[in-house]
Amino acid sequence: MKHLLSQIPAINKILMTEEVKQLLEEYPEVFVKDIVKKETENIKNEILNNNLSEVPSMEEIIEKINLSVKKNYKYSLRRVINATGTILHTNLGRSILSESIKENLIDVAFNYSNLEFNLAEKQRGSRYVHLIDIIKRLTGAEDVLVVNNNAAAVMLTLSTLAKDKEIVVSRGELVEIGGAFRIPEIIKLSGGTIQEVGTTNKTHLKDYVNAINENTGILLKVHTSNYKIVGFTKEVTYKELADLAHEKGLVAVNDLGSGQFVDFTSYGLTYEPTVKEVLDSGIDVVTFSGDKLLGGPQAGIIVGKKKYIEAMKKNQLTRALRVDKMTIAALEATFRLYLDEQKALKEIPTLNMISMSMEELREKAGKFAEKVKETAFTSEIMEDKAEIGGGSYPGVYLDSVSVKLTHNTKTATEIEGILLEADIPIITRIKENSIIFDMRTLREQEFDLVVESLKKI
Q1: Distance of CA 180 to CAs 177, 186, 244, 291, Å?
Q2: In sequence order, which residues have a C-beta less than 8 Å from that of residue 142 and are 6 or more positions away?
Q3: Per the CB 3.0–4.6 Å rule, which of 32, 249, 426, 440 could disulfide with 419?
Q4: What is the DSSP code (8-state) at residue 198?
Q5: Is 371 exposed, middle or buried, given 0-12, 13-18 or 19+ CB atoms closer than 10 A?
Q6: What DSSP element (H or E) covers 138?
Q7: CATH architecture, range 98-344
Q8: 170-215 pLDDT, tens per residue?
Q9: Beta-carbon neighbour count of residue 178 at 10 Å?
Q10: Between the CA of residue 412 and those of 81, 92, 442, 450, what are the distances in Å?
Q11: Backbone φ and ψ of 45, nearest 5°
């Protein structure tokens, strides 16, 4: 053992090799030296644990160092290619921003901006003013406030309007969203008290009526965007809830969750209310996400009656939950696309993926399959099912087209692992020992990147 330990090259000797000198020129010196030290320590530990009968050659050690440096120096948060068919893939960052808003984002990010400066009045202004007019125009809301996500939007709304008061909500709407955040817990954090009404599958207007007392503050409706209750069911409409709230001098609030602006029924999806439709029904305050069906950055958007949102702006929580200039720039540019719905469907990736026809998907699949011929894979075009994801349209699937790839010597699991190690990791699905590339989420501009990775297998 001592004989083997003595054969481990000294760190200084490794650092003097031409290959490592090259690494020192390309990467930070401290980082490279740390990798060299770790690799030599690994060899030492392997010998001490009787896992090595001989010391690796200098060439083998340098190769390990080279791979380790390149692997560990990559950014932790990186671009990936989504070929899964799940459009709003929470693990993969949900919505992709439109390429058409990139210029505005770069302009704001790499220069000073009028984030909180009123150019007309030459004095300090509000960061929220950049979003108010465009969102009011699209929704008909009296006022707008934006925070960092929809859970924060709900908490801020309830904290402002129902602190120390009862919040009436249907048992069938006590949702749990991603990361185990639950509506009852958010209500508790807001300082309100939950008053459950109805049953899991049926809630009537009279249930709300019977629950109202002198300490009631809000009638809350939560859109069950990540599950569906089917069969023997009953729920109160937005208009019924709003009318009752106004009759009793209360506030009607709706956590709409995904917050869509386009009616997707003509694209094979079931009907879901748009933000404007909910506000038109009489609901006082609506909250929704920015990075789901809207197709923008992560944000929680609050729209509704001015007097209620003005009160939220004065809540000290608003400062803690506020969004930065990048989010505001991305949201404003995304909302601008909605001024022309056809343009939004074409240029916002989330909307484009949802609205893509089977004919377009088959054409894409044909182009991809043709490129795959340059590799060692066999391809087959097949009809498939894609899903929206991101807690939107639960149990609803879109018809889709996929390309199934098989390899003569490698299993699908082995191929999946290799694709995850690519310079731009490729996320796929496995079915019947084949790798599946769904054309709804795999973008045409990514075909060449995927094929280059496949060629290396």
Answers
A1: 6, 11, 31, 19
A2: 136, 304, 305, 306, 309
A3: 426
A4: S
A5: middle
A6: helix 129-139
A7: 3-Layer(aba) Sandwich (3.40)
A8: 998 888 766 567 888 888 888 889 999 998 888 999 999 999 999 9
A9: 11
A10: 17, 21, 18, 15
A11: -65, -35
CA distance 389 to 289: 14
8 A C-beta contact, residue 265 and residue 276:
no
Q: Which CATH number fits domain 81-91+351-455: 1.10.287.3510, 3.90.1150.180, 3.40.50.300, 3.30.1360.30?
A: 3.90.1150.180
* Nearest Cα residue to 356 out of 238, 264, 456: 264
Residue 246: C-alpha distances to residues 144, 194, 240, 253 (Å): 21, 20, 10, 12
Residue range 366-388: mean pLDDT, rounded? 96
CA dihedral 14, 19, 25, 29 (to 10 degrees): -20
The count of residues in the chain is: 457
CA distance 161 to 132: 21
Nearest CA-CA partner of 199 in 228, 172, 175, 166: 172
Residue 346 region, left (φ>0) first, then alpha (ψ -120 to 50), else beta?
alpha
Rounded to two decimals, what is the model's pTM?
A: 0.90
Q: Which residues contact 409 (CB under 8 A, 6 or more apart)?
A: none
pLDDT per position as a tens digit, 23-81:
999 999 999 999 999 999 998 888 888 888 888 889 999 999 999 999 899 889 999 99
Count CB atoms within 10 A of the CB of residue 135. 23
